[in-house]
């Protein structure tokens, strides 16, 4: 059971780090601000907004001018950098493994559309032909 939790925390941590990188790229050091400003919100795409929501759930909102937690500050300094993203993923993995309730909360926020998409695209008609859509072959 503990191994399952650790594996799930590691997988979720890596995914969260990817969303966090997009969020930090769009929001910069305002990623944890209670109100990052209308301009930043308007420019952020849905992936960045989800990344910000995940980070807020994990780290909480910070008052204006407060420094980012160290793993996020490293990511903000180099948003495209693999080492900073890997360091954040490691930090998140340890944090989520230590706090199962938080792991469940943020795990529930992550999209799980891959399985649904795969299932909907692999439906087969009786003659074995692939068809799209949930019903009678209509897209």
Description:
This protein has 139 residues and is mostly helical. It has one domain (2-112). The protein is built from seven helices and no strands. The chain is globular. The chain starts with a helix and ends in an 18-residue tail after the last helix. Mean pLDDT is 78; it is low at 114-139.
Choose one word for the global shape: globular
- Describe the main β-sheet briefly: none
The secondary-structure class comes to mainly alpha
Mean pLDDT reading: 78
Instruction: State the helical fraction.
Output: 55-70%
End-to-end gap: 41 Å
What's the multimeric state?
A: single chain
- Approximately how much beta-strand content do the residues carry? under 5%
**Low-confidence segments:** 114-139
Q: Give the number of DSSP strands.
A: 0
If helices are DSSP runs of H or I spanning 4 or more residues, what is the number of helices?
7
Gyration radius over CA: 18 Å
Q: Give the total of domains.
A: 1
Query: In sequence order, what are the helices and strands, one letter per element?
Result: HHHHHHH
